[in-house]
Amino acid sequence: MSVSSSYLLIAVAAMVCVVVVASIPRVRAWLIGGSQARTALLPLATAGLLWVSAEAAGVIGHRFEESTIPQDVLSLHIQSVEFGLPPIPTEYKDRDLSIAQVNDALKSLSNADEDVTLTADESERFNIVRDSGMLNDVDGHHTYSTREIADAVKPALRFTYHYRQWAKVSASWANLLDSYENGNEKPNRSEELSALIKAVNSELTASGLFQAIVGMANRSDPNLPPPGKDCDESPNTEITLEQIDGIYYLMFPTFKTPLGQAESTGEIKAINGFGTLFTHSCFKSLARTFRNASPRFEKEADIMIKAVDEWNRILASRQPEKITIKATLANLGRFDSFARAEAKVAIGSRGGSSPLYLIAKAANGDEKVQPSEYIHIKSRDNATLTFSSKLPSDLQTKVYATYQSELAFVQLGMSASAGGEESVFRSQVAPFSVQAKKEFSKAVSDMVLSLK
To answer: Sign (positive/negative) of CA torsion 359, 365, 368, 373?
Structure first.
């Protein structure tokens, strides 16, 4: 019996004595008599005994509650599995990604720490980027690290969506100007200028579109038409070309758009030539410029998409040497737990008799390897771990073949100690092959939900 239980029994017995003293006249007269001091101490003694009883009962209740909580309840959940070289995400085609989002999308590839040597055939297929104004040439004699590959495709992820949009916008602006210039009556120059300013103002990425046209003009693709008969002799009062802190701007009545910072004679010529088309109301030349730019914008977007697709084919064709599994380890128990930093990995078909086994080492969320052989998981806490394993050459082929199979899965097993016991626990079965991931996704899409 615990000390707190003894205190509780003693306090209860004392309270019984107090009740007897207070209720039996003879006993009360014998112990207290007519003493006022003894009479005053009676409620104080009762209150003290009640406090001791409450405290003892609270301690016992707490211990009873704790005794119902298991020593440790460990769970392991696989979040993601990366096998070999991570692919380049493709959502950039339909989304406007910020610089931070691009860096985040390419983080896995940048951190893969692998090298890729291009074959002669692969290098030849990258000839498409020679016509690009955004992507650098790919050197077939160079071994590219995964970080260099990520850096090479950043412009594609950042600007493909914009170039597709600019192709549509520039074509619509050309149609707008042509609708005035090709009419039967003499166009209203003031009305046409106002319509153009309004159209530019409504396009949030107009400055990027203008800079892209200037860049193409600097490369003579296409050449800007020189000021001709469609231009006014004197500049209009609505649009001006100004240089502020080294940057050239087209100044509109209520907004301004940067054209770029000229660092060469060719860039200055391109900026001045493009700016003149606006400042002198060269509407026919502007329409022709926008119409010529539209297919070139579309071509640039296609080149960037093809380059990314080609890199993804190359990454997928390399037989991977490493498997990386991100998982969450949680401890819902009342004691801290210490899990071994190594986990056993099983790869194969669900219910298969002979899965492939390998050992993976765990690191914590910030990619620093744990200095100890154990990972400390506090009570009612969790940790995100990254398990990785460098595959030996004899296992690479087998794991790669399993990954390419239709329905392959992976499971983690770990060992941990809490108190004086050591136990084994396992993760859920997670999809490993592309087809298995599709099956899992299909289960979600086919889920039946009803609002009742």
So the answer is: negative
> What average pLDDT does this structure show over 357-377?
71
Fold classified for 74-84+320-445: Immunoglobulin-like (2.60.40)
| Closest to 192 (Cα-Cα) out of 259, 290, 287, 288 | 287
CA nearest neighbour of 282 among 361, 196, 203, 340: 196
Give 336 or 297, the one with higher predicted confidence.
297
For residues 42 and 2, which has the higher predicted lDDT (pLDDT)?
42
In the prediction, which pLDDT does 422 show? 77
CA distance readout (Å), 444 to 79, 438, 447: 16, 10, 5
Return the structure tokens found at 17. Answer: 């004595």
Residue that is written with structure tokens 């030349």 in the block: 285
Task: Label each residue of the chain as H, E or C.
Answer: CCHHHHHHHHHHHHHHHHHHHHHCHHHHHHHCCCCHHHHHHHHHHHHHHHHHHHHHHHHHHHHHHHHCCCCCCEEEEEEEEEECCCCCCCHHHHCCCCHHHHHHHCHHHHCCCCEEECCHHHHHHHHHHHHCCCCCCCCCCCEEEHHHHHHHHHHHHHHHHHHHHHHHHHHHHHHHHHHHHCCCCCCCHHHHHHHHHHHHHHCCCHHHHHHHHHHHHHCCCCCCCCCCCCCCCCCCCCCEEEEECCEEEEECCCCEEEEECCCCHHHHHHHHHHHHHHHCCCHHHHHHHHHHHHHHHHHHHHHHHHHHHHHHHHHHHCCCCEEEEEEEEEECCCCCEEEECEEEEEEECCCCCCCEEEEEEEEECCCCECCCCEEEECCCEEEEEEEEEECCHHHHHHHHHHHHCCCCEEEEEEEEEECCEEEEEEECCEECCHHHHHHHHHHHHCCCCCCC
User: What is the tens place of the pLDDT at every residue in 116-164?
Assistant: 999 889 999 999 999 898 999 998 778 999 999 999 999 999 999 999 9
Residue with tokens 């016991």: 421
Measured distance CA(229)–CA(213) in Å, rounded:
22
CA distances from 18 to 9, 317, 346 (A): 14, 89, 70
